[in-house]
Amino acid sequence: MIASREPILTPVAVKELRPTQITVGMREVELKRRMIRAQSDKETGTFLGRHMVPVVLGPKKRNYVVDHHHMARALLEEGIKDVLVTVTSDLSKLDKDAFLIVLDNRGWMHPFDENGKRRDYGALPKSMADLVDDPYRSLAGELRRQGGFAKDTTPFSEFLWADFLRRRIDRSAVAKNFDKAMKQALVFAKDKDADYLPGWCGPTTD
């Protein structure tokens, strides 16, 4: 019988967490900030105890976040100093170039900017405070909550949906009337053109 491994939990200063993506949806961040503000300190502590931030240890033992960027940014904005992280892989022995290549090839990095364009590794922010807003990521997050697609384990799946929407809904329309853009997104999400995307749940004939 193989014993299951317990996660390695370590408290880390939120301001020291390193992103592995360039953007977040700031509307998503704001929703998480509201959730935090609505909780008591005890409730927030319990929540954070159950929602550890997964990280990969990189050079100089720095913590590179591989999920929950929106939560980490919200915690920073709300002045929460520390968060528990669970180390999914220790790559601290690698030099910086090799480390970034491994992150990229394992699907632990999303180096695309707010226009959906791939950037070089140097464009990755050094802190959660430097993450840039991508409104299409917010649109994708709301689309999932409204049943436009199912939650999926594919890395950065909501960014794939964001890119799909970016090519169909004008940015000015998202900024002007988010709810109207959301209705458009729900229609596009059910279309056969989206069936390659993770979590697609449109109608089928079989």
TrEMBL record:
InterPro entries: ParB/Sulfiredoxin_sf, ParBc_2, UCP029669. Pfam families: ParBc_2. This is ParB-like protein.
